[in-house]
Amino acid sequence: xxxxxxxxxxxxxxxxxxxxxxxxxxxxxxxxxxxxxxxxxxxxxxxxxxxxxxxxxxxxxxxxxxxxxxxxxxxxxxxxxxxxxxxxxxxxxxxxxxxxxxxxxxxxxxxxxxxxxxxxxxxxxxxxxxxxxxxxxxxxxxxxxxxxxxxxxxxxxxxxxxxxxxxxxxxxxxxxxxxxxxxxxxxxxxxxxxxxxxxxxxxxxxxxxxxxxxxxxxxxxxxxxxxxxxxxxxxxxxxxxxxxxxxxxxxxxxxxxxxxxxxxxxxxxxxxxxxxxxxxxxxxxxxxxxxxxxxxxxxxxxxxxxxxxxxxxxxxxxxxxxxxxxxxxxxxxxxxxxxxxxxxxxxxxxxxxxxxxxxxxxxxxxxxxxxxx
Amino acid sequence: xxxxxxxxxxxxxxxxxxxxxxxxxxxxxxxxxxxxxxxxxxxxxxxxxxxxxxxxxxxxxxxxxxxxxxxxxxxxxxxxxxxxxxxxxxxxxxxxxxxxxxxxxxxxxxxxxxxxxxxxxxxxxxxxxxxxxxxxxxxxxxxxxxxxxxxxxxxxxxxxxxxxxxxxxxxxxxxxxxxxxxxxxxxxxxxxxxxxxxxxxxxxxxxxxxxxxxxxxxxxxxxxxxxxxxxxxxxxxxxxxxxxxxxxxxxxxxxxxxxxxx
Lengths: 373, 262
Hints:
The structure holds 2 protein chains of 2 kinds. Chain A is an alpha+beta fold. Chain A has 10 helices and 12 strands. Chain A has 3 domains: 116 residues, Beta-Lactamase, CATH 3.30.450; 78 residues, Orthogonal Bundle (Helix Hairpins), CATH 1.10.287; 155 residues, 2-Layer Sandwich (Heat Shock Protein 90). Chain A is 49% helix and 22% strand. In chain A, strands 2-1-5-4-3 form a 5-stranded antiparallel β-sheet. In chain A, strands 7-9-10-12-11 form a 5-stranded mixed β-sheet, with helices on one face. A two-stranded antiparallel sheet of chain A has the order 6-8. In chain A, a hairpin with a 5-residue loop joins strand 3 and strand 4. Chain B has a single domain, classed as 3-Layer(aba) Sandwich (Rossmann fold), CATH 3.40.50.1820. Chain B is built from 9 helices and 7 strands, in the order αβββαβαβαααβαβαα. Chain B has a 7-stranded mixed β-sheet, with helices on both faces. In chain B, strand 6, helix 7 and strand 7 form a beta-alpha-beta unit. The radius of gyration of chain B is 17 Å and the shape is globular. The two termini of chain B are 33 Å apart. Chains A and B meet through helix 4, strand 3 and helix 5 of A and helix 4 of B.
């Protein structure tokens, strides 16, 4: 090696941008380079002859003794470990280190070479990652707990809300059958009770579905292959009873039995017709139709009245969206959201067109010919 | 449950008596690789990993059970029962010294002799007792452990768990002797360094030898002498070896000290 080459090596050893140390078989520091002296603030005389762990913080000492030293003996080298040195000024020097043993022919240790790279930023960054992961874990656990409580709450709430409603509905039926109610005013009150019960019942269904959907359960379907018309007729009838002063025209041409969740499609129809009754012109009929063409089921609801604004159109199917409507008619804004969820669960969709002449919601879904899966 | 699979138990050697080696905090049974083979001619040599370490069955790791050293001691007793051990020699390093002490109290017939390497009955200072560490330092250690994942990653866990000995894992084998699920490593560190077994030592009825290194920062001479004076009739040997892992750094000295005692 030439004179200048040797100088270069010495320069590299002393001044490379990393710390070099060699540690003897007795665990004591044998050699250090100038960079390591500068970083730690100790001079070679203070370092050489001492055990490495004297310059580590306590956590690093334990780690060195319980992990690094045994690993070096077992596998001869150990890369990429974090350590904290303590400088002469008492400050922390976070490093990433690699270490390797130089062994004799019998496997005994001649010395251990240690390279340390200053890693203040890197170590801080990694610490932040670890911290934020543990924070996330904690908050995820909290969220799960809250979600579980909420789910229980909703189940109980649904039950508690439905029971009194069933009692009111049964009472109204008894009154109706008794034939005691004769005059028009009394019958109007009875109709009002029925209408309220229907509306309330739909609201509860929607709330529960929404809550379940949001809690990860989603809308589950119980498909069956049977006629759909009777279901749609029944929904229209219920709404006619609930809103006797309104006209609901139906026109169904469903030639074949439909493979779907009939209760859910009934709920979808009820939500769409209910929406038309709420927002449509009160003196004009709501027109409802359905047809199949062998490939697709199409169900539509149309009303006249104020068209839906462009801004409202964008948010129509979002939960808790409510258009401009009289306060007394306002629902939770879940009806269309749930309807679209039911449509999606059936592999279908709801399209809306709205003009001053007509607002029309069209639900279409592919017809699947298999029976319940 | 298969205890032998749970603790990745390996039995080798021949002989009427058995010698059980228990690894300490940090790595696994391979830390005995330079010492255990020395006894295979005269002893049935039993090596195992504590649950959570090495090739143990991680699915059997139970947070509550392993929140004290008793959980580990119960496993040790079960291993002894499964292998039908009686009057075996127990060699425990570091925290396993105390695990052996607890096991010998639970099942006095299990071990005939115990060799405790670098034992400490309590790591944290307490009044006049000098364990060597403050509570704050141990808290810092628990945090610091997260800074060294030892190449552990969730994606690699399955291959590490089942196949610690598969050479074809190649580079992934790096650090495998000490690689532990970080959550478990932290929990084991907590159990180890917050344990206090000072009141258990007097209940030991088995002849016991303490191997004490010089310059061991984990278990100082003072701590070793405390264990010596607390276990009735125990003896202590001071090794020339330095550091906390003489089984790796000075296996010849360790093996001859064990041999001289058994």
